[in-house]
């Protein structure tokens, strides 16, 4: 970042090689700032006071989109005017060669916050690359408390929260997508592990169609859409029941969950309870 400040008087700076930003004796802290899951939600409603207090005086931010980030930050009651905030963009098109520039304020000793378009940064989010670089450079990383669509969907699904995996986005080509869905289903059925995937909102209905085509009739499927918003919906049912009704979803953020058949879950729970009863006392 071009406006990185020099180290404060009295601090030592590590000599920098040509093209490398000057480094303070102690780097700043990278705060991972969650944001509401929908534009209609106020940060003051969804973020703890401690989270907002932590970033109140920060003036350096990295976000996927500077305009939407500025709108969120403007509703957080920050101590500084919006015009004083430096917001650098990091999205899927940002070349890795630019990451050191984004990290420069931290190496100069200034705190910085990373935020995504919605929910927790660095989870299914290009900001993960900046966090990884921060660790390599010895920059402290502090995650702050806020909403996570993945965990909210898992909580609402009734599926296993003891063992789950986030598989991110599925392949777009139909054949590859089918194979990936079947692989996730096998894992859910053999290990009892909840499989979580997401999709770009305008492809929600297409993904749902692929899931209904590829999954077995008794596999459990959950869809949690527009979480925390007045229009939120959570539906969990066997694939056979999904197939009996309309298969259309809103073009809004959604989380898809794949779980083993309900009978398998009940049987597994029965085995676990039986083992618990015969466990020897110590």
Tally the beta strands. 12
Oligomer status: single chain
Helix/strand class: alpha/beta
Mean pLDDT: 88
Can you name the CATH architecture of the largest domain? 3-Layer(aba) Sandwich
Q: Sketch the topology as an H/E string, one letter per element.
A: EEEHHEHEHEHEHEHEHEEHEH
Numbering strands along the chain, what is their spatial order in the largest sheet? 5-4-6-3-7
Assign the CATH superfamily of the largest domain: Tetrapyrrole methylase, N-terminal domain
Characterization of this structure:
The chain is an alpha/beta fold and 282 residues long. The protein folds into two domains: 13-143, 3-Layer(aba) Sandwich (Cobalt-precorrin-4 Transmethylase, domain 1); 149-267, Methyltransferase, Cobalt-precorrin-4 Transmethylase, Domain 2. It is built from ten helices and twelve strands. It has a five-stranded parallel beta sheet, with helices on both faces. Strand 8 (164-169), helix 7 and strand 9 (194-198) form a beta-alpha-beta unit. Helix 4 (99-107) packs across helix 5 (128-136) and helix 7 (174-191) packs across helix 8. The longest helix is centred in the middle third of the chain and has 18 residues, at 174-191. The model is unreliable at 1-20 (pLDDT under 50).
Structure in a nutshell:
The protein is of the alpha/beta class. 34% of the residues lie in helices and 18% in strands.
Label this structure with key terms.
34% helix, disordered N terminus, 282 residues, Cobalt-precorrin-4 Transmethylase, domain 1
